Amino acid sequence: QKDIISIRDFDRKDIEYILKLAEEMEPIARSKKKSDALSGKLLGMLFYEPSTRTRLSFEAAMKRLGGSTIGFAEAGTSSATKGENLTDTVRIVGEYSDALVIRHNMEGTARFVANIVDVPVINAGDGAGQHPTQTMLDLYTMKRILGRIDDLRIALVGDLKYGRTVHSLAYALAKFDVDVSFVSPKELKMPHEILHDLSKSGVDVYETDSIHEVLDKTDVLYVTRIQKERFPDPAEYLKIKGAYTITSKLLEGSDAIVMHPLPRIDEISHDVDNTPQGRYFEQAFYGVPVRMALLKSVIK
Ligand code: CP
């Protein structure tokens, strides 16, 4: 692939190739081995929305491979504040760079940018749309911890309406032989068009608003934050805020591992952090080898 825009552009073989490459990258990500595979290459990073993990793990990934990064961490420090449009910005930074990573609040932005510049474009999250590199690291985490993706029972929990990580992940899981359930308050259900696409791909769609209902038949509890910034009406967010919290008590008797793309607010209690089930910090680390694999595969 030239670009990484949507997980829907990848077939199962492509995903497995990246996961295998990420495994080879892990010793380099852990500083146990050195690599100069991307020496002399420059990654342009345009973050129009806040980020900790995605931005810094891309930066770490590029540097671990001997490359460098340029860019901005928030549009407020770029000439966007003077009124420069996105097209002009990406044309300029695209000429400076060997690949571009972009995060933007508008769905479809990464695809739009890929049609403008010649260098590879990587989507680091576009509104409530897609977050394909997060999905790759989510799959890598499942495989790394549980040894497989096929035959897993996965519950996607939380804000399934606005969460781009679960939108991407649901499409990716449809390429594997898994059992997926969707757990959310009724106001934050997975969008109909995604459920429709999943059904067409052969996924048995099971929706519930009760974690208790799925807990003892789940291998992976994938929890998400309620995406406050995507609510058109802040009053609606306030009504639903704090609707669910995963605690170590809730997990008693369950073997499920708990994943979360992070950041978390209050949906996972801190008492889960040091249990064998809380795997979200490990998951966040896997962002480095997975993004190394993705960079290595697109930067020529
Ligand atoms: N998971 C994730 O996208 O985190 P950031 O918003 O910190 O990049």
UniProtKB/TrEMBL annotation:
<dbReference type="InterPro" id="IPR006132">
    <property type="entry name" value="Asp/Orn_carbamoyltranf_P-bd"/>
</dbReference>
<dbReference type="GO" id="GO:0006520">
    <property type="term" value="P:amino acid metabolic process"/>
</dbReference>
<dbReference type="Pfam" id="PF02729">
    <property type="entry name" value="OTCace_N"/>
</dbReference>
<feature type="binding site">
    <location>
        <position position="131"/>
    </location>
    <ligand>
        <name>carbamoyl phosphate</name>
    </ligand>
</feature>
<feature type="binding site">
    <location>
        <position position="263"/>
    </location>
    <ligand>
        <name>carbamoyl phosphate</name>
    </ligand>
</feature>
<feature type="binding site">
    <location>
        <position position="82"/>
    </location>
    <ligand>
        <name>L-aspartate</name>
    </ligand>
</feature>
<comment type="function">
    <text>Catalyzes the condensation of carbamoyl phosphate and aspartate to form carbamoyl aspartate and inorganic phosphate, the committed step in the de novo pyrimidine nucleotide biosynthesis pathway.</text>
</comment>
<dbReference type="GO" id="GO:0016597">
    <property type="term" value="F:amino acid binding"/>
</dbReference>
<feature type="binding site">
    <location>
        <position position="103"/>
    </location>
    <ligand>
        <name>carbamoyl phosphate</name>
    </ligand>
</feature>
<feature type="binding site">
    <location>
        <position position="54"/>
    </location>
    <ligand>
        <name>carbamoyl phosphate</name>
    </ligand>
</feature>
<feature type="domain" description="Aspartate/ornithine carbamoyltransferase carbamoyl-P binding">
    <location>
        <begin position="2"/>
        <end position="143"/>
    </location>
</feature>
<feature type="binding site">
    <location>
        <position position="262"/>
    </location>
    <ligand>
        <name>carbamoyl phosphate</name>
    </ligand>
</feature>
<comment type="pathway">
    <text>Pyrimidine metabolism; UMP biosynthesis via de novo pathway; (S)-dihydroorotate from bicarbonate: step 2/3.</text>
</comment>
<dbReference type="InterPro" id="IPR002082">
    <property type="entry name" value="Asp_carbamoyltransf"/>
</dbReference>
<keyword id="KW-0665">Pyrimidine biosynthesis</keyword>
<dbReference type="GO" id="GO:0004070">
    <property type="term" value="F:aspartate carbamoyltransferase activity"/>
</dbReference>
<feature type="domain" description="Aspartate/ornithine carbamoyltransferase Asp/Orn-binding">
    <location>
        <begin position="151"/>
        <end position="297"/>
    </location>
</feature>
<dbReference type="GO" id="GO:0006207">
    <property type="term" value="P:'de novo' pyrimidine nucleobase biosynthetic process"/>
</dbReference>
<keyword id="KW-0808">Transferase</keyword>
<feature type="binding site">
    <location>
        <position position="134"/>
    </location>
    <ligand>
        <name>carbamoyl phosphate</name>
    </ligand>
</feature>
<dbReference type="InterPro" id="IPR036901">
    <property type="entry name" value="Asp/Orn_carbamoylTrfase_sf"/>
</dbReference>
<feature type="binding site">
    <location>
        <position position="53"/>
    </location>
    <ligand>
        <name>carbamoyl phosphate</name>
    </ligand>
</feature>
<dbReference type="InterPro" id="IPR006130">
    <property type="entry name" value="Asp/Orn_carbamoylTrfase"/>
</dbReference>
<feature type="binding site">
    <location>
        <position position="225"/>
    </location>
    <ligand>
        <name>L-aspartate</name>
    </ligand>
</feature>
<comment type="similarity">
    <text>Belongs to the aspartate/ornithine carbamoyltransferase superfamily. ATCase family.</text>
</comment>
<protein>
    <recommendedName>
        <fullName>Aspartate carbamoyltransferase</fullName>
        <ecNumber>2.1.3.2</ecNumber>
    </recommendedName>
</protein>
<dbReference type="Pfam" id="PF00185">
    <property type="entry name" value="OTCace"/>
</dbReference>
<dbReference type="InterPro" id="IPR006131">
    <property type="entry name" value="Asp_carbamoyltransf_Asp/Orn-bd"/>
</dbReference>
<comment type="subunit">
    <text>Heterooligomer of catalytic and regulatory chains.</text>
</comment>
<dbReference type="GO" id="GO:0044205">
    <property type="term" value="P:'de novo' UMP biosynthetic process"/>
</dbReference>
<feature type="binding site">
    <location>
        <position position="164"/>
    </location>
    <ligand>
        <name>L-aspartate</name>
    </ligand>
</feature>
